[in-house]
């Protein structure tokens, strides 16, 4: 099934996403979320290589994704959502990422924003409003990261404007903002000479907001991870929530964010393995010294393929374990439970990083030169894994795990462990 495609404008500036074209389905429970994810993945996979090669922005695919109801699965039940477990959230993301790594990553910040609302400072009215928007099919992107500007006075600013606020600044690595209806934006305000951080939910269509499709990484090509500019953008007071408390006290915001990253890498690795199997059966040749007729009988090929499978299954187990521990921490958040969740997720991220990269590399080692032919698009798995796994250095994941178990040192609460 091929979905329609809209080419990006020549200047890179992208107009706001249209309003949702249909009322999304409301997912009932965890099992239905998994079933829908598998059904969507089967639709997304066939054209994934084409979207990557030609950098086709997946507007139609995202409309189908939103309409499926999957973007609302973390909305708590008391607000009308399914309130799925973190294990289910991770599995949904992994299923989609196996079909298309970019599509698996795009909603990550959407779920992150919903988590911030729930765990930190969103009022009951703010939660009700934004959860309703998510269930109505509206997508949240992000504008969190900036290049340079360690001096908060030069960073994206929030200033008082009557009963509301104004925002000025520029962000980069804004995954999902290009396709969003709302752009949750990290802003700073000055209070007695000190930096205070907030998360402002900015309407994508607000005057003064500019989204530029200038992401040119060699992987995750259609995540829309470009830049967002804010020029005297008006936001209402009820669209602004506290953010500093995200890491001043123990919350699971960091572990949930990192768990989703682990799930993306797991999915990309699964996709690489799934592409390797038919290629070995139909195209690859055995090495002459193996003295066999088929690549599928080459003993060293079987050894290395088995290693990839085992690494991915181990990574999958760690992701599920991390999801369960994070679920438990959400029920009783304190210094210890949140630290245990962070360490469990760090272990999962360490292994999903190495497993996804191994899967992409072995596809070529075992498939041979013909696997590199450009029209096959098999290189996208390694490129996607290599690009996405650079979000946070895996060496520090091992450090956090080792320091916790050897020295009983709790990991820092900054969302990148």
Structure description:
48% of the residues lie in helices and 12% in strands. It is of the alpha+beta class. The strands form two sheets. The chain has a four-stranded antiparallel sheet with strand order 1-2-6-5, with no helix packed on it. Strand 1 and strand 2 form a beta hairpin. Helix 4 (86-99) runs parallel beside helix 9 (253-282) and helix 6 runs antiparallel to helix 9. The radius of gyration is 22 Å and the shape is globular. 50% of the residues are buried.
Can you describe this structure in just a few lines?
The protein has 417 residues and is of the alpha+beta class. The chain has helices at 30-44, 48-54, 59-67, 86-99, 101-105, 108-121, 124-135, 245-248, 253-282, 299-331, 335-367, 379-388, 394-407, and strands spanning 157-161, 164-171, 182-191, 194-203, 209-212, 227-236, 240-242. The chain contains 13 helices and seven strands.
Structure classification = alpha+beta
The rounded distance between the terminal residues' Cα atoms is 39 Å
Integer average pLDDT:
93
Q: Uncertain spans, ≥5 residues at pLDDT below 50?
A: 1-8
Number of strands: 7
Q: Work out the radius of gyration.
A: 22 Å
Number of helical segments with 4 or more residues: 13
- Rough outline: globular
Q: Report helical residue fraction.
A: 40-55%
Q: How would you describe the oligomerization state of the chains in this entry?
A: single chain
Sheet with the most strands, sense and barrel status: 4 strands, antiparallel
Question: What is the H-and-E element order?
Answer: HHHHHHHEEEEEEEHHHHHH
**Major sheet strand order:** 1-2-6-5
The portion of residues forming beta strands comes to 5-15%
């Amino acid at each position: 099934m091929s979905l329609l495609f809209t080419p990006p404008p020549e200047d890179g500036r992208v107009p706001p996403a249209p309003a949702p074209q249909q009322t999304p389905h409301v997912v009932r429970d965890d099992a239905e979320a998994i079933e829908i994810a598998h059904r969507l993945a089967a639709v997304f996979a066939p054209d994934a290589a084409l979207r990557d090669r030609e950098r086709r922005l997946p507007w139609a695919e995202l409309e189908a994704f939103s309409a499926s109801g999957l973007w609302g699965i973390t909305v708590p039940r008391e607000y009308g959502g399914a309130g799925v477990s973190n294990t289910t959230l991770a599995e949904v993301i992994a299923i989609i990422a196996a079909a298309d790594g970019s599509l698996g990553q795009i909603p990550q910040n959407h779920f992150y924003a919903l988590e911030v609302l729930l765990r930190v400072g969103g009022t009951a009215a703010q939660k009700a409003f934004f959860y309703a928007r998510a269930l109505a099919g509206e997508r949240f992107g992000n504008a969190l990261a900036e290049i340079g500007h360690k001096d908060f006075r030069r960073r994206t600013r929030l200033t008082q404007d009557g009963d509301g606020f104004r925002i000025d600044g520029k962000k980069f690595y804004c995954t999902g903002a290009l396709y969003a209806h709302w752009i949750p934006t990290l802003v700073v305000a000055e209070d007695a000479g000190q930096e205070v951080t907030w998360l402002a939910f900015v309407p994508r269509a607000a005057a003064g907001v500019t989204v530029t499709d200038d992401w040119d990484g060699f992987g995750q090509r259609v995540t829309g991870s470009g830049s967002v500019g804010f020029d005297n953008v008006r936001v209402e007071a009820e669209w602004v929530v506290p953010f500093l408390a995200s890491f001043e006290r123990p919350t699971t915001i960091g572990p949930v964010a990192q768990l989703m990253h682990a799930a993306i890498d797991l999915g990309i690795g699964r996709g690489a393995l799934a592409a390797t199997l038919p290629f070995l059966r139909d195209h690859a040749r055995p090495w002459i010294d193996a003295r066999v007729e088929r690549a599928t009988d080459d003993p060293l090929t079987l050894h290395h393929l088995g290693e990839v499978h085992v690494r991915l299954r181990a990574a999958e187990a760690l992701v599920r374990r991390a999801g369960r521990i994070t679920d438990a921490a959400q029920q009783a958040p304190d210094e210890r439970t949140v630290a245990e969740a962070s360490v469990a997720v760090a272990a999962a991220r360490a292994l999903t990083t190495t497993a996804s990269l191994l899967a992409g590399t072995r596809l070529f080692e075992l498939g041979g030169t013909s696997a590199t032919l450009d029209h096959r698009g098999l290189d996208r798995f390694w490129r996607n894994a290599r690009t996405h796994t650079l979000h946070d250095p895996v060496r520090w994941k091992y450090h956090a795990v080792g320091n916790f178990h050897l020295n009983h040192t709790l990991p820092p609460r900054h969302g990148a462990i």
